[in-house]
Here is the input.
Amino acid sequence: MKTVKKLWINATIVIYCLGVLSTELRGAGLILNEYNAVSSTNFLKDDKSDTQLGRIEGNGGNWLEFVVVEDHLDVRGWELRWAEQTEEDQVEAVWDPERLNFEQGIIRFTNHDSWSDLRSGTILTIGELETLVAEDGSEVVKGTDLSFNPEQEDWWIHIWSFDESLILTQTNVLGDGPGNFSVGDDNWELTVFNPEGEGTVIFGPIGEDFDDFRGGINNEEISKLETDPSPDVVLVDYNDGGSSTFGEGNIWSSGEEMQDFQKIRTWFGGGDPGNGSEGPALTIRLEKNPESDMAVVLLWKGEPGVEYDVLIGDFQSGEAWTPLASVSGTENNFFVDIFNQRLRFYRLEIK
Here is the structure.
């Protein structure tokens, strides 16, 4: 009698026509949750305010917010690659030589021990301003704050971008230097990248220039994830808005909806973060198809001697997951045609 593993695992796999990298994926470990596109001389639109900063000019300047969605995550050496379209070509590229009409930069995590074991459910912000003072005069952040104490409901870590012990930055923006990075409303985008070996795209690219992104961001708005943080978020889960929540879970629909972190914080007080079931995670790889430059091969392999029932699905903007194939066994593969598709999402459900 065969042994069939009964568990659910969701893995979102992002495929690019511009060079598919061979990689092993278990879903994104670090996801973008919110970023501030309010210009330095503007305020949040419609008289709205940030839950911590209040209503201040620039809404805190250049800042990014991430959520850790994999427990015991090691991000040492990972890169946050950002770009924003400009009217004039830049003198040099930082990470994409094909797009000189984009300002570009990299925020790189150092080998500091603080990055070796991030806990699932952590909120991580990176900000360019050393001190952020709220509308009421209170000091929200000053420099880097690595304090983390879930028992006191402190799930937030903040990094000042000029803290070279923790992050290093590189940019081609005229007049900027080490410590500087940019966030804006002109087709700004971000990719989380692990440069080790051949390189692995961990998450992204995310930004308003991609077809499935909802809304168009202006310089009085922020961009945010409008669903619970998990490894399975996709572009249509992001939107523009005026409700800003620096260092806290996102809210939307005029405050009627808010993020729930419970599923990615199950380790706190017991439990296993992730799929909620015992048993090994599958190894999932994405490789170039040797028979076609416009296709890839999706491969998966589980525990030896254990059969898995696998449903492979495809996601299109505004639609539900569509089953593409159903395969079973201890290992298998699936050929994915990506002809004329810049970005596509595929999901495996292992039952």
About this structure: The chain has two domains: 10-15+281-350, 29-264. Residues 29-264 form one domain. The chain has a mean pLDDT of 76. The chain has no helices and 23 strands.
